[in-house]
Each structure stands twice: as C-alpha cells, then as structure tokens.
C-alpha cells in the first residue's frame, strides 16, 4: 500500500513477552529491525485495569511488540527475547524480584506455542546444567500503561540518564553478558 508517496506494509503482527522491567524490554525490542512499536503494560492476571502504582496482582510487567512479519519473524523475536532475559531466575529478573517481574512468553495460537516451546528446548540444550524456568503461557488481555502512568511508555527515551542508571545498577547487561556472552546484543 502507498500512503502519501511512502510504502506502508499493511501487515503487522503482535507478540507479548515478559522479561522483568518493561522499560528494558521496550528499549531492547525497539532496537530490533522490523519492530514497529513496543508498548509497556501488564498481562497474565485476572484483575481488570491493572496499574503500576495501584493493584497489578497476578499480572506480569510485559511488552506488546508490533512487528512486520515480512521483516522479522516470530522465530527471530523469540531468539532475541531469550538473549535479553535470564531464563534461569525463578524469582524475577535481575534486581527486580516478585511475580510481576517474572519472565514469560505469551502465545496467541498453536503455531506460536510450537515455536516458543522449540526455542525453549533449544535454550535448555545450550545450558544442560541449568533449569530454564521461563513459562510459555496462553495470551490474555494486554493492559497498556496509560493515563497518569503514561510516563512509563518510552521511559528510556524520555528519561535517558535515569534509565541508564537504573539498568546499570540493576545489573541487567552484566548478567546478560555472563549468561549469553557474544550472543547478547548489549
């Protein structure tokens, strides 16, 4: 499709991932070519309209990734996801602990489940002495951060110094390098 002289892909797919702090997941996925948008929010719980400063019990901090499947495949998103998380931490991710900071892959259909499961098995084979604890869960309602809490969207862009300080002091990149070595994009 052409819009005002620019070619625009009419096809876009969405994927949802939890990997600890949604600021970091948003920042990481927005660097991946073929990703059009990344939104921070919550998913996985039953509570309606969860909020960051209010109640988000049972939910994971997550990102909704909108991508062009002609430029990046779901498989490539999975591969990128793994090297941006600690698949062995059953208490959260990096310095953030608790249920809302757990890693998880949320699948929308059987094909995504099949690909996610195969990717998890591949990661497990790379680390036979460790247990991969990241679950593959059914997708549920994704609740974007909004309203008074909208400052969480694009936090890394709008607050670069605070974001970089948080990411460094949380030890995210240091741990990713310890796990993944040269595979990590950081």
Helix content: 25-40%
What is the terminal-to-terminal distance? 35 Å
Say how many strands there are. 10
Overall pLDDT metric? 93
The oligomerization state is single chain
Q: Assign the structural class, choosing from mainly alpha, mainly beta, alpha/beta, alpha+beta, or little secondary structure.
A: alpha+beta
Question: Which regions are unreliable across 5 or more consecutive residues at pLDDT < 50?
Answer: 1-9
Order of helices and strands: EEEHEEHEEEHEEHHH
Tally the helices: what do you get? 6
* Major β-sheet annotation: 6 strands, mixed
Strand order of the largest sheet: 9-8-3-5-4-10
**What is the molecular shape?**
globular
What's the SSE blueprint?
Elements (H helix, E strand, L loop, with lengths): L1 E2 L2 E2 L5 E7 L2 H9 L4 E9 L16 E8 L6 H9 L9 E2 L2 E2 L5 E5 L2 H17 L9 E3 L4 E2 L10 H4 L1 H11 L1 H9 L6
Parallel strand pairs: 8-9
Antiparallel strand pairs: 1-2, 3-5, 3-8, 4-5, 4-10, 6-7
Helix pairs in contact: 2-3
Architecture overview:
By secondary structure, the protein is α+β, with helices and mostly antiparallel strands. The chain has helices at residues 22-30, 74-82, 110-126, 155-158, 160-170, 172-180, and strands at 2-3, 6-7, 13-19, 35-43, 60-67, 92-93, 96-97, 103-107, 136-138, 143-144. The model is unreliable at 1-9 (pLDDT under 50). The strands form three sheets. Strands 9-8-3-5-4-10 form a six-stranded mixed β-sheet, covered by helices on one side. Strands 1-2 form a two-stranded antiparallel ribbon. The N and C termini lie far apart (35 Å). The longest helix has 17 residues, at 110-126.
